[in-house]
Amino acid sequence: MQTWHDRQPIYQQLADILAAQLLDGDPEEGAPMPSVRALAGRYLLNPLTVTRALQALDEEGLLEARRGLGLYVTAGARERLRAAERDRFLNTEWPLLRERLRRLGIGAEQLNWEER
What are phi and psi of 12, to 5 degrees? Predict the structure, then answer.
């Protein structure tokens, strides 16, 4: 069961979850997104909240509406999303993480890039 926090609106949290799934290839480019009703049931949310999350992804160019058919993942969505996430990480998260590593005295040789 998904736990929501107060640091950002729930629709944005859901949009982030769905974007992460898109990064993982679920659903694939060209495939339909689950319906608002299905997502509302899966995440126990109001359909209006789900609609706003999908709208946020649509505004980012990751989804396209097909009249009478629903929302579909656009071609190139995964790579656009990956590029945006890389940029956000390198410009926002990495500087903070690098500074924390420096403070803790952790060098590159101590970091294991593989899962344990």
Answer: -70, -35
